[in-house]
Amino acid sequence: MSQTPATVLVVDDEPPICENCRKILTRAGHTVACAYNGQDALARMTDQTFDVVVTDLKMSRLGGMELLRRVKAASPDTMVIVITGYSTVSSAVEVMKLGAFDYLPKPFTPDELRAVVAQAVQARQTLRQNRRLVQEGPRRRPTVHQLVGGSAKMKKVVEMIAKVAPTDATVLITGESGTGKELVARALHANSRRSEKVFFAVDCGTLSGNLLESELFGHAKGAFTGAHKEKEGIFQRADGGTVFLDEIGNIDLEVQGKLLRFLESREFLSIGHTTPRKVDIRLILATNQNLEEMVAAGRFRHDFYYRIYVYPIFLPPLRERREDILPIAYHFVAQFARQMEKPIRGFAEAAVQHLVQQEWPGNVRQLRNAVERAVIHSETDTITVRDLTFADTNSDLTTLMTHVPATNEELVQLKKEIRSKAVLAIEKNFLLHALNENNWNITQAARQTGLKRTNFQNMMRKHHLKKPKTP
């Protein structure tokens, strides 16, 4: 498991435990210091800022509980992980109330320690990112031609756009549905010498072979049944501009052949005409399908594939660039809050954790819809978990299952959404059953289900489960 390097302070009045934790975390790439009691830890923290503090609960000079209070008061962004013995598990509720990120029951394994520290580091980064985005307000979003996000993968996409946009090279954009392929195509057009000319976007998944051919190339009057008059195609109307062909995996082989000839000669024949027409347009193509597999299966022309594979740009799914989730969510919050005239400034911390923990199988499109629903539902200036999840119920799942998709793309997307929501419902029922069976004793529930306690707790956080308050 790769971990983001962090500065960690381990506090325990047993030097062998401190040294063992230091070795485990140093091997994971962290910079680790040790303190042998709470007073020494506070002294170390006056000279150095730590991302994470791992402290024992019971110590002779200033125990872990008081150290936790003082650390959170002096440095709220520092994540504190409390180590507890089995006999002190009941105090875990209190340390969590005081602001501890998590606690580890003794004995714990090296993997458990590394995992909880990695989670704490990620949570700290998300917390700071959320605060920065709130402070920046809606005017300073890191947007490049509507492409939001500063992850390394998105920076690479933007760099590729900057390199190829000024040329007339054919570009093939690949990526899952909802990742923003049309936004990339529009960015390519906006940064090209054709930016003042027309941009046409064509969804090839909604048009059959004859209709697509007629739409692109046009037709003569009487060329086929229903051709009552001459029609000028998109290629002719886009002369000097850019044409974006989305979902090219749905184009039949015959039309692929005609597009191949166009790319080689920049000439095309309208249906029913015998004289070719020459135009100056740039083609940008996109797909969410694996074209190599389609070529191998004979469903996509190999010569057309190699002809369009000039400059491929891959758009990564949102789950592979989680650091972009918050900037994108804030971009949509600003957009929808402005449209709906609501004074919404950002997300509550629990809502932030909910956002970054989701898989987002529908990618940016799904996130956009979730934020729009939350803005509509919100009654304050901060979006809560309730605002984000009010529609995520079993009735929502039932509604999805009764929906009949019209296209293959819709079918694939619907299956992903149903699978995701069904798994979440099963996980939540699994946790609730185990907790109720064990009177909400997390340690016993984890042991009964065969899960490590930290993993069980992480699942509880994911589903926002907390022990019900007794009346």
TrEMBL record:
Positions of post-translational 4-aspartylphosphate modification: 56
GO annotation terms (biological process): phosphorelay signal transduction system; regulation of DNA-templated transcription
Any coiled-coil regions, as ranges: none
SUPFAM superfamilies reported for this sequence: CheY-like, Homeodomain-like, P-loop containing nucleoside triphosphate hydrolases
Stored CDD domains: AAA
Response regulatory domain residues: 7-121
PROSITE patterns: RESPONSE_REGULATORY, SIGMA54_INTERACT_1, SIGMA54_INTERACT_2, SIGMA54_INTERACT_3, SIGMA54_INTERACT_4
Record-linked InterPro entries: AAA+_ATPase (IPR003593), AAA_lid_NorR (IPR058031), CheY-like_superfamily (IPR011006), Homeodomain-like_sf (IPR009057), HTH_Fis (IPR002197), P-loop_NTPase (IPR027417), Sig_transdc_resp-reg_receiver (IPR001789), Sigma_54_int (IPR002078)
UniProt keyword annotations, A-Z: ATP-binding, DNA-binding, Nucleotide-binding, Phosphoprotein, Transcription, Transcription regulation, Two-component regulatory system
UniProt keyword annotation of Cell cycle present: no
Domain Sigma-54 factor interaction, residue spans: 147-376
Any one GO molecular function term: ATP binding
Protein's name in the database: Sigma-54 dependent transcriptional regulator
Organism, as annotated: Desulfatitalea alkaliphila
